[in-house]
Amino acid sequence: MLVPSFEDVLKAHERIAPHIHRTPVTTSAYLNRLAGAELFFKCENFQKGGAFKTRGACNAVFGLPDGQAEKGVATHSSGNHALSLAYAAGRRGIPCHAVMPHGAVQAKKEAVLAYGGRVVECDPSYAAREAALARVRHETGADIVHPYDDPRVIAGQATCSRELLAQAETLDAAIAPIGGGGMVSGTCLTLANAAPGTKIYAAEPEQADDAARSLRAGRIVADDAPETVADGLRAPLKELTWHFVSRHVADILTVSEREIVDAMRLVWERMKIVIEPSSAVPVAAILKNRGIFAGKRVGVVLTGGNVDLAELPWARG
Predict the structure, then answer these.
(1) Which of 104, 193, 274, 299 fits a disulfide with 305 by CB distance 3.0 to 4.6 angstroms?
(2) Cα dihedral value 18, 3, 158, 90, nearest 10
(3) 126 with 83, same domain?
């Protein structure tokens, strides 16, 4: 297992700078009052491609040697990593093959195609995704860029919290959503080196709480195809992300589907910004666990804003 270093983060930030936004950090007096804390929202919903995943995808794509790059890149993803990899591949002018489950958000599939990528649909289970990706790799020879189990991707995601530290300065705590753990691992990588006094939390849906159960058990506990409105958080941990989570995360806080939807709507209404359900999970966790964050300066990663506007969760049923 190749574990990225903080030096890899610094190199990644320099490599991807021409291809990403330095996203803003915003605040909300209303949400501060609700939480009893000072919240600093890192708005990766304003990132290229609409999600933090562009950071790791760009680091992987632009770090490829020319000979390998010609064969293109491939991945499996519920959406944001797929469209981010298609964006990065398009910038370099190489092919991108994205294995996506049938039920993935249509807007995310369309974004992959708009960036020039190819969508290969599969069944929603994690096993089906990996099997389809293996077939694509055999057919194309493309370099596999895993959504999170890849040191290049984690080093790229770590640039988000590096920017957050520079923008918000001192933080007592930081929280991000967790699925497979790429963003949280990157957050651990940066903060453990640049701000070791900052406590790191992760937030997860109750209906996809394998990371929380893993932390309690002291080993990876995986679900194959959990169901949650937070579609970006259905993936299981891998050994590389578990390396960071098990060593640096203070706790993984879980929230209900209702709490996720309510937090998402709250951010839309009070902050006037579009976030997707996965981004709302840490907001919901803060409001549910005020005692943990009260009186503290807290960095909150809003990981993305790719939403199917025809299927808003509070408009269903």
Answers:
(1) 274
(2) 40
(3) yes
Helices (H) and strands (E) in the chain, counts: 14, 10
Distance, CA of 260 to CA of 251 (rounded, Å): 18
Is 166 in the same domain as 237?
yes
Q: Do both 82 and 218 map to the same domain?
A: no
pTM value surpassing 0.90: yes
* Residues 283 and 53: beta-carbon distance below 8 Å: no
Structural domain range at position 254: 6-51+150-315
Q: Domain count of the chain? A: 2
Strands 249-255 and 199-205, how do they pair?
parallel
| 3-class SS string, 254-266 | EECHHHHHHHHHH
Structural domain ending residue among the three candidates 101, 123, 144: 144
- Terminal Cα distance for the chain, rounded: 46
Pairing of strands 173-177, 38-43: unpaired
Q: What is the pLDDT of residues 36-85, one digit of tens each?
A: 999 999 999 999 999 999 999 999 999 999 999 999 999 999 889 999 99
